[in-house]
Amino acid sequence: MTEIDDIDRKILRELSRDGRVSNLELAERIALSPSATLRRVAVLEKLGVIKGYRAVLDAQAMGAGFVAYITVGLSLHTKAAQEAFERAISRAPEVRECHNITGAVEYLLRVEAADLASYKTFHTDVLGTLPQVSAITSYVVMGSPKDERA
Fold this sequence. Notes:
This protein is α+β, with helices and mostly antiparallel strands.
């Protein structure tokens, strides 16, 4: 892999803020010619440093104003149990992120629901029915003073 230099870091920072910025505007922001900027972005894409571009959605505007992080402990610590849990979670539209983590539990989920009642239904009817799950702890998001997810 090619070494990422300060100019590449500037490009990545600007694209993280605004993935729809034009090449001309990006070049102005990082003080580089448009052709050199375009070449560098193409290389970063080819190397897989830039994996893609996406829209950042407002969950509340989409009717999902309730956000919670959930830790999930499994009853069995086997590959089969993990794979079964991950398959089930991949089918749950409320789960926006699923991370296999280290520590006292196996998973950290980010869940978006319309409201507390909708979350309770997910908690009971989805998580509560999975045979692999032995522990669930919910952390309700009250505010997000910093959120750089894209």
